[in-house]
Design goal:
Layout lengths: L1 H20 L12 H19 L4 H18 L10 H35 L1
Length: 120
């Protein structure tokens, strides 16, 4: 299961990287605002990596924030793209929310298992 989660996390990161640096017309669009699309994408990335690497969650948060900053800077050289501090803040906060959701779900599962063991 861990291997599948890790593969999914890295494929999702690759897709988000392509959407961030690739041609704008190839990026998926939704009814959400641009900030909403960014937030959704990076919450999912944070959640995926948070679930895939539970033992290394804190370093993964730091690496993710640095990688998000790097993606934003790389947009300076991507034709038709633009780097904005607002995008970095939204993306980094959204990824952190995803990691927090992963940590919260781990905590809830541990409490549930603990209560099951006490009941038996």
């Amino acid at each position: 299961m861990t291997t599948i989660l890790r593969l999914f996390a890295w494929l999702l990161a690759a897709a988000v990287t392509f959407a961030t640096l690739g041609p704008a017309f190839m990026r998926p669009h939704s009814n959400l605002s641009q900030d909403g699309e960014h937030a959704l994408a990076f919450v999912l990335v944070g959640l995926a990596f948070g679930l895939a690497y539970p033992q290394h969650r804190l370093p993964a948060v730091g690496i993710s924030v640095v990688a998000i900053g790097l993606l934003e800077i790389l947009q300076l050289w991507a034709p038709g793209r633009h780097a904005r501090l607002e995008d970095f803040v939204v993306d980094a906060l959204a990824a952190c929310v995803g990691f927090a959701i992963a940590a919260g779900s781990d905590w809830m599962v541990a409490r549930w298992r603990e209560s099951d063991q006490r009941a038996s």
